[in-house]
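Moderator note: this is an archived Q&A kept for reference. The question asked for a predicted structure of one protein chain; the sequence and the answer are reproduced below.
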Amino acid sequence: MEKPLLLLLLLISILHWNSFASLINEKSYFKINSSSIKQARKAFMSFDISKLQDPPMPSYSFSVYHLDVFEKSKFNDYESMLTNRLTQDHARATYLASKLKYRDTEIKKDHDFQEKYARNLSKNHDQVLKVAPTNYFNGHYVALLLLGSERTRNYLLIDSGSYLIWWQCAPCIPDKCFKPRYNTIYDSTTSKTFTQLDCVQNSSICISADHDFRCALSSKRCFYTQQYITGETTKGFMASDVITFPSDNTQARIKFGCSIDQKGGPDFSGIFSGILGLSKRVSLIATGGYSLPSQLSSSIFALCLPTAVSVQPSILTFNKAPWIYGTEAKLLKNRLTPHWYYVDLFKIVINDKEVPVDPSWWNGQKETHGVMIDTGTLITRFPHDYYIIFRDVFREEVKDYTMIEDGYGIFDTCYEDDPDGADVYFPIIKLYFGNYSESQEVLLVDGRVVVSIGGYYCLAFMPWDDKSTLIGTNQLQGIGLTFDTKKNVLTFSVDACD
C-alpha cells in the first residue's frame, strides 16, 4: 500500500476518534473493558470462601453475600455460572408474568372485580398472601443469621416479596432435610430459647384463612406448606426463637417456620437453609405478617447488594439508615399487592435523550401497572411495548459498534467486543423518580447497563408479558437501599456497597 494512502487512512482514523471523543465529552458515555471484567471474574472464581470475613456492622445488622460466592464451585467458569443464572431468571419472570396475567384477566372479565378484590384485602389475609406470586424459589443474595440459644450459623435467601421466614429445623422427618454445605442444621431440641406456639390458644399465630396454613387441634401446632414452581416443597410448623445480631449480641424473638420436611429440587442445594422474608408491613392486616421488618416493628431497614463479582460481604440493617446521601423515591401503595415495594419512577433518559413515554405509564396507583423493587429478579423487566421504545433509543445512542443481528441468548441487543481488548463506550442510563431533576436522578453505568457474555456486550434489560415493571438486582448491585415505610421513601445510595 502506498504511503499517501496509509497517511490518509491514519488521518481519517484520528479525525474519527477525535469526533467520537468529542461526542463522549458532550454526552454521557461510560467506558467498559473486557480485559478488566475477565480479570475480576477470574479472581472471583478463584477466591477461597474459607477466608470470608464479616464486615464491621452497626447494631441490628446481618452480613449479606452474593449467592454466587457459594455456588461458583459448581461451575467450570464464570460465564457458565452467569448463563445458568440468566436462564433461571428468565424462567422466574415467565412464571411471574403468567400469575399476574391471570389476575389481570379476572379484572377485565369483571369491572367490579378490582374493587371487590381490594376490599377483600382488608378483611382476608389469604388474599394478601396469594396476590403476590412469591413461590418461586430463586434469589441472588443471602444473609447470615445466628439462630437460637446455640447461635447456629445459617444462611437464608433474601426475598423482598416474601411474607414468611423459615429455615430447616431438626429433628427432621427421616431423610427429609437436605444436607447443608455451609450451615449446621438448627436443632430445636438443643436451643434453650425455642418455643412452640399454641394456635388454639392464640388463633392469630396461624393464618387460618390461607389454605397453606392450618391449625391442628390435637397438637395445637400451626402447620404450613410452601410449594415452589421449580419442584421444591417445604413443610413444618410455626414456632418462636431468638436471633442474635453479631455486632453487639443484641437478641430479638421472632416467629418462624420450623421446616421439618423438604422435598428436593434444583434449588435445595444446601447453600442456604431457608427464606428471609422482607416484605412490606401491611398495617391493615390484624395478624401483622411474618416478615422480619414486621416482627421487629422496624419502619426502616437498609440493604446493600454486593456487586456480582464481589467477595466482600455487605449488610442488612434495621432501625437506622447507614448512609447519609442518596436519591429518594416515594414508596407507593398498591391495593392488589400491598406488601411489595412500588416506587414512583418518573422518566428514563439515555445519554441526554428521554425515552418518550408519559410518566403516567409508571403510576403505581394503577393496580396492574407500577414499578416494583424485587430482589428475586436479576435482569430488570419492562412491559414489552415500553421495552421496544427504550431499546430503540439505546440503539440510536450507541455509536460505531456492530450490533449482532439475532442477539445472544435471552438478549436481543448485543454488540461485539473490541477484538484488541480496547475500551468500549456505552451510554449512561438515568432513572428519575418523582420528577425530572438532578436531585431525583439515579445513574446506571457499567454492569448495571450492559452484561458481558459470549464475547459480546448485551443491553441488561428485558421485556416481559406484563404491564408492571420489575427493577432487578443487576441494576441495583452496589447500591445501598434504605426502605422507610413510615415516611414511605426508598433511598438509593449509589456505590455505597463496595
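Archived answer notes: Residues 78-109 form the longest helix (32 residues).
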